[in-house]
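sanity check both lines:
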Amino acid sequence: MKFTAAQIANILEGDVVGNPDVEVSKLSKIEEGTEGSLTFLANPKYKPHIYTTKASVTIVNKDFEVDASLTTTLIRVDDAYKAFSTLLEYYNQVKLNKKGIEQPVFVSESASYGEDIYIGAFAYIGENVSIGNNVKIYPNVYIGDNVSLGDNCIVFAGAKIYSESVIGNNCVIHSGSIIGADGFGFAPDENGAFQKVPQTGNVILEDFVDVGAGTTIDRATLGSTVIRKGVKLDNQIQIAHNVEIGENTVIAAQTGIAGSTKIGRNCMIGGQVGIVGHIVIGDRVRIQAQSGIGRNIKDDEVLQGSPAMGYSDYNKSYVYFRNLPKIVDRIDQLEKKHTFND
């Protein structure tokens, strides 16, 4: 896709300084700009690069002052960083604006779908599936029987949505994610062999949920595993059966949440956090990376460590831990001195 400087300025409501007909077809950092690329300057420390960049077009603030000759065409806007972000969003929408049903695909006769959809090659749509308007389903996606998928959703290549799952509006499910796999439910028999406990529930994703690549959300044993509105999940997260995650909570990569745990609203959970099952975590909780959570957590707590403790307590304790060899040496010296005096 190619855009002229004039077209970009029109999108951003900016002013062109230079050649309005110069074309760009890619994005770049200002220090790595090449002919045909678009970049931006927002941080003053990168200002020297604007005089050497080979980018064809550069977005700058309206108050930017030129100190030397330029080869790049400028687009002056109120806020260069915000404008570039707006352009990225526009570019993404254009790039992902696929429509129609490719072949070969399998769409069950009992499935229904709305307007302006895209279904990529080799996708599978099961019995009684309901798909909303403006949904994009990329190649090799599997959608099992009785799944409901709301409006404006994107399911990227290779994602799997098991039967009975309910996906709200404006959700994004990235490649390799699995929604609705069986929960980890086994019970030992009299011989000590583990027998599977049937997992008969489902998964519910409310509106505006993002699921990162390779993340797994298990179906409930009974009832539902529920991911509330606005939750954002990073890549490679494990969410076990019957977990509930509150609105607008964000969770970083490689976190594992065991079964039946309830997490509140507006929490922030770092990477590689381990959370045991059957506990309740309050609202607005902050958990630092690699922490281990094994107890109920009250609202607004900030935690770190494994097992996790209060963030400020952890930092104080860590100072002592780092100085432990010196402390032990001082104790040894005191004991020797005490023994000698005796």
